[in-house]
Amino acid sequence: MTDRTHSTYDPTTIALHWLSALMIVALWFIGRVADFIPRGTLNTNVWSIHVALGFALVTVLLWRIVWRFTGRRHLPAVYPGPTHVLAVSSHVALYVLLVTVVTLGVVNAFVRGFNLFDIAALPQFGDKELRKPITYWHGLAANALLALALLHSIAALYHHHVLKDKVLTRMLPQRRPFPPMEERFEQFDS
């Protein structure tokens, strides 16, 4: 183990990573459950949550991509060579699938035209013949994204529990030690 395995990503990268992960899992789950809800207000509201959360994910994804190229802390590879190439390739695949899923989701929302919470309506820009294939590819890409994210998680856990190389902890929020009582009140003494 070297010192470089103990370095961590910056707080913004960590927050965007975990926020994206939570949103992806929530969107996938909502997308699967919503099909089983009978048409009506509840169904509309569940799909509205899916669409609204999907548009929020677009924002998080754009922020994440910009941050990746402009502001994040670039960490050295833990393992050089083929293992590093595999890690980079899997990250590229995750980003490509994520961009594909959100793009198809946005296109799907506008091809269908969508009544968001029965309050605001997205305009319909497509015909009914486009709905089925776009919905199919959106779902297929979402399933592939979730499968790859699961492999990504398993790899991180393998690194943590088997290789014990701290790869997982680089993406975990860092705990700051709680200062002693006297240090907490020093600011009030002046």
Automatic annotation (TrEMBL):
Location of this chain's protein in the cell: Cell membrane
Entry's Gene Ontology BP terms: respiratory electron transport chain
MF annotations from Gene Ontology: electron transfer activity; heme binding; metal ion binding
Transmembrane segments: 12-34, 46-66, 92-114, 134-158
Topology in membrane: Multi-pass membrane protein
A GO CC term attached to the entry: plasma membrane
Similarity field: Belongs to the cytochrome b561 family.
Name of the protein described by the UniProt record: Cytochrome B561
